Amino acid sequence: MDFAELGRMGMKERMMDSIIELFGKKGFQATSIQDIVDANGVTKGTFYYYFKNKEDVLVHIHQSFIDHLLEGQENIMTSEGLSNQEKLYRIVELLIGNIRTNGHSALVFFQEMRHLSEEKTAIIMPKRQQFQLNIQKVLEKGMADGEFKKTLRADMLSYAVLGMANWSYFWYEPEGEVDEKSLTDLYMQLIFNGVKEETNDH
């Protein structure tokens, strides 16, 4: 890879960072190509050199975001020595921690998918569904191992876990009074108190 190619990659990454921030603050529809080129100090020709259109950028944001989460989730699920409770905790911790590192990307991911065409949505949806199914697998394994109540539906519970964690992207401020671990602990208390199998140990 020569220096020119490295420079092009660097420019595209810098543009992506600014576009993600613009989409996060203004929204996909309200952000124009002119807004993007003005924010980057480039011409429209430069934009179209790297991207076909705004949807092309939106697809890239969605793919990068979910791929990052799936990679982190896979690392957790394949970690040896972790109980199912610990795996579930770390997955929620992954989602909450991601707010600090990828806050604008998260907002775009959750708010702007409706602007993707059916063709592009069909690329992203299986990955989103896989993340949910992986949580469901952890819950099902926990039920089989006696860690979680068998009377609960793992599919519905997985959506509840995701809904609680994902909604945090819209209101949680990592720099505020509650840190990421405290919020994760709070969520997990709510979840575990509802799903943990009762024992005779007192």
UniProtKB/TrEMBL annotation:
InterPro entries noted in UniProt: DNA-bd_HTH_TetR-type_CS, Homeodomain-like_sf, HTH-type_Tx_Regulator, HTH_TetR, KstR2_TetR_C, Tet_transcr_reg_TetR-rel_C_sf
Listed SUPFAM superfamilies: Homeodomain-like (SSF46689), Tetracyclin repressor-like, C-terminal domain (SSF48498)
Gene3D superfamilies: Homeodomain-like, Tetracycline Repressor, domain 2
Keyword hit for Repressor: yes
Pfam families assigned: TetR_C_24 (PF17932), TetR_N (PF00440)
Keywords, in A-Z order: DNA-binding, Repressor
One GO MF term: DNA binding
Cited PROSITE patterns: HTH_TETR_1 (PS01081), HTH_TETR_2 (PS50977)
Domain HTH tetR-type span(s) in chain numbering: 9-69
DNA-binding region coordinates: 32-51
Keyword Transcription regulation: no
UniProt-recorded name of the protein: HTH tetR-type domain-containing protein
Species annotation: Halobacillus faecis
